[in-house]
Amino acid sequence: MTVAAGKLATTSMTILEIALHLCYDSQESFTRAFKSRYYMTPGKYRRFGLHFAVIQKKRLLYKRNLIGLEGRKKMEPKTLHKPAFKVIGLKYYGNDPANNCPDLWRDFQRLRTSYRRRKAMD
Questions:
Q1: Residue ranges per domain, the chain?
Q2: For 67-100, how does the pLDDT look when each residue is reduced to its tens digit (9 = 90+)?
Q3: CATH classification of 2-57 is 3.40.50.11290, yes or no?
């Protein structure tokens, strides 16, 4: 559905064209699926000029879940053993209609630099 939302927001494809491109049997079945995820019809989503991703955690228990929508590339998971490492990040809640992502990334880079300096002093 995230692919569909992106196409609604960034292309002039009709809703039917998007539905068929994503292998739905009809515009009606696509609209039902879209509405169950985004709580509005695709037409309303497009008219409001919205674009946000709703991401659902996938279960990787079965290989049939490992095929991507676009390109039909099959993904094979593998376990890697790596030495311990630290992770740093920023917590963000909500959608971002003002596109503040560049500011968040800049803040993240400052935090990362600050962390490295503190680590070097230890």
A1: 2-57, 84-122
A2: 555 555 666 778 888 898 877 666 666 676 666 6
A3: no
